[in-house]
Amino acid sequence: MSETATAGRRLVELNVNGMSHVGLAEPRTLLSDFLRHDLELTGTHVGCEQGVCGACTVLVDGEPVRSCLTFAVQMEGARIETVEALSADGALHPIQEAFRNTHGLQCGFCTPGFLLTAKALLEENPSPSEAEIREHLSGNVCRCTGYQGIVDAVLEAAANGKDQADEPR
Amino acid sequence: MKPAPFAYYAPETAAEAVSLLQEHAVDGKVIAGGQSLVPMMNMRLARPTALIDVGRVAELAGIAVEGGVAIGAAAKQARVLREDAVAERLPLLVAALRHVGHPANRARGTIGGSIAHADPAAELPAVAIALGAELVAVGPDGTRTIPADEFFLTYYTTALGPDELLVEVRFPDPGGSRAWGFREVARRHGDFAMAGVAVTASCGAGGTVESARVVLFGIADAPQRAAAAEQRMVGASPADPALAAEVAAAATAGVEFASDPYVSAAYREDAVAALVERAVQESAKTMEEA
Ligand code: FES
Ligand code: FES
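Structure tokens for the assembled complex are given below, as produced in the milestone run.
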């Protein structure tokens, strides 16, 4: 591979939301742009494009990653999850439900990044404290809500998740 | 903005990475997690013509714990944070890692990347000095080992040659009675420090400090040891309630604090004094627990 490296376009195959997608990308194509422009998955938002706002956060192998700081070519073989996967079956994901209930969004620009960052947190720690939630979300900026609704949403999603786990099946 | 074009190389062995780096020593760059490099490329403050991605080099991502701890330069910060064996031996490293960026940065960011990037406000360079780490580099003339004390030269500049690759960070066996403290002040948790300090001390049988390191960061062009503060700790007992304030007073002596548009030198000096005091108090506590 290394002898043939160029700055030109090449075929890139990415696993996004459980499906294999093939597209043409230059090495300099950011994952955020590849998702939005080539795969037309525009749920991933781009705010600052310099790693500060967290709007572009996606999950890579289950961990939150800023797609504006990642080149698409680096992601071959990785498992990528975008906000589109959350409601793939048409129903809102429990975390999305909680955001709606608690007014965890206003304009919604930051929301995809918050949802995925919160999902990663709840998978690792199903009942985080408010302080843990705030620390985990500290890399995501919201210009509308003042964050309280977002923190409440994650607390509610955690509580609902626990109820479900307690229910007899 | 978008980065300028570059050729992309994804070697699978360290040897291949080193030879690519030699080929592109003039305007090539090594990329690991990219959490510092890609923002600079997006803003076109950096325009490397070739990127050598070490993210697929498995031998650079290892973590070996025996006596000391050897961490491959490309080991991800988030992964190191999850290693219980590292937390047990190097609680200072773990405490500092929690301040390195946000979870999304640590998922991609690497131990070696932060050290080789040498941002003067970064936590890991100061921790490497405080723990007496050694940095292993591979270049055209083979492998050499550089003490962390001699590694960080000035803003974003290290002792690494343009054709040398950082491959491993070696933390020596911390030994039995090792005290530590870590404090920083940042605008928001996870942001770069406006000032910070890492303290380590090893204590003898009588509970007095035999050697100490007080490393300041986010204060000037590179992390810096506060020699007078270290001397004040030697021979003292960390449990002495008067010690922290005295070490703090000594820590700012002879240090030239930098001013920037956001943080004045005077603020940094005040902050360092307060942070050192708290870090020394914390080290007394870790001593008791040990
Ligand atoms: S768009 Fe990626 S962090 Fe802001
Ligand atoms: S809802 Fe508008 S930025 Fe967060």
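The first strand of chain B starts at residue 7 and ends at 9. Residues A 46-49, 51-56, 66, 68 surround FE2/S2 (inorganic) cluster (ligand 1) (CB under 6 Å). Further analysis is deferred to the final report.
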